[in-house]
Write a structure and sequence with these properties.
15 helices, 0% strand, mainly alpha
Amino acid sequence: MKTPMVASRQNWFIRNRMTLLTLAVVLAYAAFIEWFWGWSSILAQWGNVGALPILLAMALLTSTYFLRTWRIYDYFPKETGGHFTALFRVTQVHNLLNIMMPFRTGETSFPVLMRSEFGIPLARGTSALLVMRLLDLHALLAAAGVGLALASPYHALAWVLWLAFLLVPVAVFVLRRPLIKFAGKALPKKAQGLVHELERGLPANGTAFARAWLTTVVNWLVKVVVLAWALRLMNVTPLSASFGGAVGGELSSVLPVHAPGGVGTYPAGITAGAIAFGAPGQKAALDNLAQASISAHLLIVVSALTGTALALLISRKRHG
């Protein structure tokens, strides 16, 4: 059990370290944009979109951080009950470390922070994170399916298939016991260890799972729809390409190949996703897509920094 003095020193250290890290992110990314493209071009594109849509997109993206925090709050109700603001700070620290550290190494901060702040064992925190990340990946792919369904000439069939894919986690949870039993017999020993980790990280009952799953779906649909909308405002066409770009950027941030800050990899993911979903290949269109991908990445980074600043502000008020 931490003494109040030790806890206060740890909180002070985390808050000030994250403030410096946040400043470093801002300066490094600003220098990168100037070197790679030039701020004048990026600001001109933002100017064409207008202040109100940008502020609305920022507000919606920032709101997803509160939704993510609630998912974890509901996942560990006994440990985190009554400590939503502390958990919000933990999730924002974890999110910023994920952005800054390459190859998903920032993920390791989650079980460590949950143990230090709420006394949750490392194994349980790691198992729960693994389950949540699988739900995240599924929801992100389901969001990509929206773009595919919009682009498909067979709309009714496309939406039926999309709905079936959307419900896959529900079916897996309902059938978890026979599936785990089958996996225990059919898979190699190393893979069996992963299955047991997944089992330990699952919510206790169907109601808790439904809340976690629905929260995940809403969170990612909001994020992808907002990004697709922003890309569409920046003249990324057709609409399916905007969805593809949004999903491509987010996939680049959740897969192992991820540069610090997403610099380079996130815009590349947007570009690749948009082209895969039907963006035109003419030089002018590709040039606009490249600028839009940087602007969208900047929108993500600024929203993450806004969430971190809010977390630090709330934390300071509570400890002031």
